[in-house]
Design brief:
The chain has 2 domains: 12-59 and 76-131, 3-Layer(aba) Sandwich (Rossmann fold); 145-339, Rossmann fold (3-Layer(aba) Sandwich), CATH 3.40.50.720. Helix content is 45%, strand content 16%. The chain has 12 helices and 14 strands. Strands 1, 2, 3, 4, 5 and 6 form a 6-stranded mixed sheet that branches. Strands 11-10-9-12-13-14 form a 6-stranded parallel sheet, sandwiched between helices. The protein starts with 11 loop residues before the first strand and ends in a 7-residue tail after the last helix. The structure holds 1,4-dihydronicotinamide adenine dinucleotide (NAI). 1,4-dihydronicotinamide adenine dinucleotide (NAI) is lined by residues 113-114, 144-145, 148, 177-183, 200-203, 206, 221, 235-238, 257-259, 285, 288.
Length: 355
């Protein structure tokens, strides 16, 4: 673990095994300097256990940065459950996972991520107090995807204003890769405002649905990143923007929901050098954790959550402007900003446990 490229002095990493259900999971707690480590739980079939650990380490650091830049009183953590989980064991696996989260006494707060549904979270929440994204009350809570999508749309609008000098997105050409919870809601947000969509997903029925509902054009799942559009919005899994993609893509803006969407520093640098505006993923996709945090803390109403998500626009503008002024890639500007916030909180010795 200590040699993993994504290990970053993580505060704690827990491996979980439950013989009865067959649960195998990793819970990575990157930092609790700002508050309990909050971040979703992903269910994925990894090639190796090392790959699962690596994903948990990378995603949990991303959550620390996301929560810090979003101004939330939360640290960063993430859980991954090693799939596949057969349907008949799903209940037992999420029950065991809930108990594992509970055993950490509030150091880690879980929610949905890729492969985990609201129904799964309901099982988790029966076994731990430390789960959010469970139920909608007063217009907030439950599945965070629509809130994430709203924030992504607001971030795209801010990037379009700065990079293209446009004040609306009528007729803007956007390519959306991945039409799951966030991608499909993003299509709706953009379509309602007159954007022209190109879409791709490895699940054909999702493509058909988006074409029907939002007059989108279908594209091949691999080629969509190279489409001749104004904005590419990666909303599938991480590392979509490799150095090669960065070198060859034709869009002027990359702004989507997927966590860890640039494969590494090199890809981010190439985008910057080519004058392609990249909105750092954890800045633009914070809408979900904003609502998950409000639900968990029982603080704020729909209006407050919406206003907090609106601020993603200002943050996007600030990071893009600083990137220009400091001549640094946007991901570097955002990372420095996040690390400074976490370091300041660490010096103050903030809370480590909400319980
Ligand atoms: P999801 O699991 O609902 O949807 C992912 C979609 O991507 C699926 O339709 C899948 O078929 C498709 N897909 C997978 N590989 C693909 C490929 N190579 N090409 C095209 N499509 C592909 O996941 P969700 O919740 O929509 O999340 C999407 C991304 O956004 C993930 O990276 C997630 O970590 C990130 N994210 C999600 C948040 C949320 O509120 N759900 C919050 C912040 C980030």
């Amino acid at each position: 673990m200590f040699q993993d490229p994504h290990y970053d002095d993580h505060q704690r990493t827990v491996s979980v095994y439950d013989a009865e259900s067959g649960l195998r999971a990793v819970i990575a707690i990157h930092s609790t300097a700002l508050g309990p480590a909050a971040g979703g739980c992903r269910l994925w079939s990894y090639d190796t256990a090392d790959a699962a650990l690596s994903d948990a380490l990378r995603l949990s650091r991303g959550m620390s940065y996301k929560n810090a830049v979003a101004g939330l009183p939360m640290g960063g953590g993430k859980a991954v459950i090693l799939g596949p989980v057969p349907p008949e064991r799903r209940d037992a696996v999420f029950t065991a996972f809930g108990k594992a989260v509970e055993s950490l006494g509030g150091l880690y707060i879980t929610a949905e991520d890729v492969g985990v549904t609201e129904a799964d979270l309901a099982i988790v929440a029966r076994n731990t107090r430390y789960a959010s994204g469970v139920a909608m009350r007063g217009g907030i809570g439950g599945n965070p995807s629509p809130f994430t999508a709203r924030g992504v749309r607001i971030g795209i609008e801010a990037a379009v204003r700065l990079a293209l000098g446009r004040t609306d997105i009528e007729g803007l050409r956007v390519a959306v890769q991945g039409l799951g919870g966030v991608g499909s809601n993003l299509c709706r947000e953009l379509h309602e405002r007159g954007a022209r969509l190109t879409v791709a997903d490895i699940a054909g029925r999702r493509v058909e649905e988006a074409c029907d509902l939002y007059s989108a054009q279908p594209a091949d799942a691999d080629d969509i990143l190279l489409a001749e559009v104004d904005v590419v919005a990666p909303c599938a899994l991480g590392s979509a923007i490799t150095a090669d993609v960065a070198r060859t893509m034709r869009a002027g803006i990359v702004a989507g929901a997927a966590n860890n969407q640039i494969a590494g520093d090199e890809a981010g640098r190439i985008l910057f050098e080519r004058g392609i505006t990249y909105v750092p993923d954890y800045v633009i996709n914070a809408g979900g954790i904003i609502v998950v945090t409000a639900e968990y803390l029982g603080a704020g109403d729909r209006g407050e959550v919406d206003r907090a998500i609106d601020r993603i626009g200002d943050r996007t503008s600030e990071i893009l402007e600083r990137s220009q002024a400091e001549r640094r890639p946007t991901h570097d500007v955002a990372d420095r900003m996040a690390r400074a916030i976490i370091a300041r909180a660490g010096q103050r010795g903030s809370a480590t446990n909400p319980a």
